[in-house]
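Fill in residues.
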């Protein structure tokens, strides 16, 4: 009898894994929309791949694998068993490149398949919102195949793909942060109108002051630790320009004309953008190959070794010894996790951000309980896309593709492998990519403020 019940339970689980997103909810979960569940599930696959990449790049992982008898080439030997696994490839930065390559291929495939899906009535929508078990198998299959790619020039070429993709994803992160700040500001202003005005306005003011204080503190620390009186001219220019640009966008955000055109704009959004800009500036300076101007790299790479002359790039340790969890890398992962989760559950009424992110006006996260509960009493996800999709399936997968490239660059510290894969080098192109993305991001935010004034005939509400 127990075996029959177990088989029935397994059959129901299998039907859920092969069916639609509605099966991913149980009676204990809050009722929500089909579109939200699907985005969360795809984001989970991305996070799962990220976790695998983190494990693969942990220091000492190769030594632990070589202790497994009969597994790694050059490892413990078992009579009669040939060690066939090249552990140099399945751990370290090479494994991160291959894992992220597999995730990028997976999301690129879905981005192509889901082009111009208009509603859940499209047969392809069933693929988007269901068949999760088979999707997982496809991802695993691509990942296994990626580890059989010969070294050759693969890593070097894929590095440049990662640089370009990460540049675009940094801009997407900034757009999401702007949207989050707008939604946050609007929600607290509504609560201030409904309840204790002093309390909510005080909270908004406190958060804004803290953000600006952190940004200003970062600027001071940058000048102290990342510049030298007779060197580091690039860093001085980067810090000064971004400080100036942050002051400009903060002033523009509270101009009377801008406030009249966009009442929801304010210093909270500007403070978050300024803080994020300082993080990008810090991240860029941490990739400067000049060790005189980069204390992060100095402490990371051969801390007891001699300091090379200024301007000469210094090779970093072998890939197996590269630590990715320096401070800016950890902050980058935290921001990535937040933006990925927010992109999956966001429910925004900001028309400008919705146009940029290819989404529709927000409907909220939870659905009506009555409409979500079936005849059997089980809560299921509500199909809210019968008349039209609430987000572009294709663009969402393209965003996850860019996110996988960003993770690849973050976990490897944006270091460039040389042709024989013996060392990894930090390069100035990575610095300029990050700095340019910060400038372009500030430009995008400034445009969202002045666009209604520059183009008064267009509707930006």
């Amino acid at each position: 009898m127990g075996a029959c019940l177990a088989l029935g339970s397994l059959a129901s689980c299998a039907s859920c894994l092969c069916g639609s997103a509605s099966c991913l909810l149980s009676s204990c979960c809050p009722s929500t929309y089909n579109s939200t569940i699907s985005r969360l599930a795809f984001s989970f696959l991305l996070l799962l791949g990220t976790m695998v990449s983190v494990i693969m790049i942990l220091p000492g992982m190769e030594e632990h694998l070589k202790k497994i008898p009969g597994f790694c080439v050059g490892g413990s030997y078992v009579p009669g068993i040939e060690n066939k696994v090249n552990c140099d490839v399945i751990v370290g930065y090479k494994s991160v490149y291959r894992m992220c390559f597999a995730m990028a291929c997976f999301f690129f495939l879905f981005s192509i398949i889901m082009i111009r899906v208009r509603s859940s009535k499209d047969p392809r929508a069933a693929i988007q919102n269901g068949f999760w078990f088979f999707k997982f198998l496809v991802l695993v299959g691509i990942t296994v195949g990626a580890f059989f790619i010969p070294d050759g020039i693969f890593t070097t070429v894929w590095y440049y793909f990662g640089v370009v993709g990460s540049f675009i994803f940094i801009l997407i992160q900034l757009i999401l942060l702007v949207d989050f700040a707008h939604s946050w500001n609007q929600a607290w202003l509504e609560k201030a109108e409904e309840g204790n005005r002093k309390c909510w306005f005080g909270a908004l003011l406190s958060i804004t002051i803290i953000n600006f204080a952190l940004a200003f503190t970062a600027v001071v620390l940058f000048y102290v630790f990342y510049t030298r009186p007779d060197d580091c001219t690039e860093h001085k220019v980067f810090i000064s320009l971004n400080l100036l640009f942050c002051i400009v966008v903060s002033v523009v955000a509270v101009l009377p004309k801008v406030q009249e055109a966009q009442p929801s704009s304010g210093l909270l959004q500007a403070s978050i953008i300024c803080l994020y800009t300082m993080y990008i500036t810090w991240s860029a300076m941490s990739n400067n190959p000049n060790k005189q101007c980069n204390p992060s790299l100095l402490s990371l790479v051969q801390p007891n070794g001699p300091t090379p002359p200024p301007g000469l790039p210094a090779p970093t340790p072998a890939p197996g010894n590269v630590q990715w969890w320096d401070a800016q890398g950890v902050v980058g992962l935290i921001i990535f996790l937040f933006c990925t989760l927010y992109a999956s559950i966001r429910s925004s009424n900001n028309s400008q951000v919705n146009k940029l992110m290819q989404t529709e006006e927000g409907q909220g996260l939870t659905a009506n309980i009555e409409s979500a509960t079936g005849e059997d009493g089980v809560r299921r996800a509500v199909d809210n896309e019968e008349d039209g999709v609430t987000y572009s399936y294709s663009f969402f997968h393209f965003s996850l593709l860019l996110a996988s490239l960003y993770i690849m660059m973050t976990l490897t510290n944006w270091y460039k492998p040389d042709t024989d894969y013996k060392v990894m080098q930090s390069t100035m192109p990575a610095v300029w990519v990050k700095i340019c993305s910060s400038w372009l991001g500030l430009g995008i935010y400034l445009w969202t403020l002045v666009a209604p004034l520059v183009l008064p005939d267009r509707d930006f509400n």
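The two ends are 62 Å apart (CA to CA).
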